[in-house]
């Protein structure tokens, strides 16, 4: 437990582009990647904007499936992280990855026309390709095969905390001595008609369709919901001694992680924010840090009325009499990447530490004064040594990760 877990590689794909440094440049510039959806017809939908990552394989009227897109995005992020770490396949460690709960989508369901069980069996006969495409965890298995990772990939689905849960799994595997290094990642590609309609029915999405770039506005009085997005993030974690022995460049550290279940409601957090506070405190305890040693909080910051209020209240409670550090939401620029958010945003914390710069929360014309936190309306230099990355999922699945600066 006294050994530190180093980060030696980082990969990232968002609506702002491919590559961690390209994303960082766009984030610091305050650029939004939110735009109108052109991948499929959004007629009649409450929301028609998103943080889209369209791929060359997408064909007009026939975009890639959720699992195929998640695989492509995950491969891009993991490949970049491995290259930065000076590693290549086969990778001598496990893949821990947050993934969406891959389901057969409407277009594929249409191929099963039978209404009775025997008819369903008959219509599915010979559909091996369809089975392999939508086998739960199949995308993760193909990523693991591509990079030759050790053992069965550890696929975790904890809603919007999945990417952070993957980091926690990798961290614990290294601490227990089960692996000297691990890939911690998250990949998300649930942006398709059915998911967009479902979130729309929950009234969870921003409907500011006429102003895509201004739609995601966390911590403001005019926030009206989150913006869905594609994306992937990956970090190479290593036992510090192992990383130094092979001459790797240490970019930073995963100092700790904490989780806490809410169990209050399928989509809402407990009104007192108790689980969120517990989650952050456990991460700090695991890292051996006090609240005052955190210099930046990358908030879950979804731009929904309830989440932002709850999170700001929880952060203030965590810091008590101390003034809370700057609290920013990069979802204002890249949207909400759901299962990938925890991995992407931990990576953003790492970049902020390396550059000693805070990325902004854009669209802050009407900051909610009742929240009582510094929401970083513009990017600015900032000297700090540790950051807290928050990821809170539907169903009360809360995970926080502490990222530390390199020595």
UniProtKB/TrEMBL annotation:
Residues 2-405 form the Ketosynthase family 3 (KS3) domain. InterPro entries: Beta-ketoacyl_synthase, Ketoacyl_synth_AS, Ketoacyl_synth_C, Ketoacyl_synth_N, PKS_Beta-ketoAc_synthase_dom, Thiolase-like. Pfam families: ketoacyl-synt (PF00109), Ketoacyl-synt_C (PF02801). SMART domains: PKS_KS. Pathway: Lipid metabolism; fatty acid biosynthesis. It comes from the Bacteria. Keywords: Transferase. Belongs to the thiolase-like superfamily. Beta-ketoacyl-ACP synthases family. This is Beta-ketoacyl synthase N-terminal-like domain-containing protein. It comes from Sediminicoccus rosea.
């Amino acid at each position: 437990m006294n050994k530190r877990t180093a980060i030696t590689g980082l990969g990232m794909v968002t609506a702002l582009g491919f590559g961690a440094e390209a994303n960082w440049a766009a984030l610091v510039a305050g650029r939004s990647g939110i735009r109108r959806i052109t991948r499929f017809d959004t007629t009649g939908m409450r929301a028609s904007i998103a943080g889209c990552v369209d791929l060359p394989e997408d064909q007009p009227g026939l975009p890639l499936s959720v699992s195929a897109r998640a695989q492509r995005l995950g491969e891009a992020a993991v490949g970049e992280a491995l290259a930065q770490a000076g590693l290549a396949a086969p990778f001598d460690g496990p893949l821990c990855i947050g993934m969406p709960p891959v389901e057969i989508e409407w277009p594929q369901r249409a191929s099963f026309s039978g209404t009775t069980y025997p008819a369903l069996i008959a219509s599915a006969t010979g559909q091996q390709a369809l089975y392999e495409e939508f086998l739960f965890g199949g995308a993760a298995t193909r990523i693991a095969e591509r990079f030759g990772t050790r053992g069965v990939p550890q696929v975790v689905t904890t809603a919007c905390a999945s990417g952070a849960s993957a980091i926690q799994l990798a961290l614990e595997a290294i601490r227990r001595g089960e692996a000297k290094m691990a890939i911690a990642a998250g990949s998300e590609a649930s942006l398709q008609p059915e998911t967009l309609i479902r979130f729309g029915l929950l009234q969870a999405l921003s409907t500011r369709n006429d102003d895509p770039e201004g739609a995601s506005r966390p911590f403001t009085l005019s926030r009206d919901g989150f913006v869905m997005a594609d994306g992937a993030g990956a970090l190479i974690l290593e036992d510090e001694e192992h990383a130094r022995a092979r001459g790797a460049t240490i970019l930073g550290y995963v100092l700790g992680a904490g989780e806490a279940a809410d169990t209050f409601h399928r989509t809402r957090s407990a009104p007192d924010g108790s689980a969120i506070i517990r989650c952050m405190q456990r991460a700090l305890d695991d890292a051996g840090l006090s609240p005052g040693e955190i210099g930046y909080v990358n908030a879950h910051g979804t731009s929904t009325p309830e989440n932002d209020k709850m999170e700001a209240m929880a952060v203030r409670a965590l810091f008590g009499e101390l003034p809370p550090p700057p609290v920013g939401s990069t979802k204002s620029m890249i949207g909400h990447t759901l299962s990938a958010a925890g991995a992407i945003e931990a990576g953003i914390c790492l970049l902020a530490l390396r550059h000693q710069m805070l990325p902004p929360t854009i669209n802050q014309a009407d900051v909610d004064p009742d929240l009582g936190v510094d929401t970083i309306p513009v990017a600015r230099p900032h000297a700090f040594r540790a950051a807290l990355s928050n990821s809170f999922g539907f169903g009360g699945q809360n995970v926080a990760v502490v990222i530390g600066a390199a020595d």
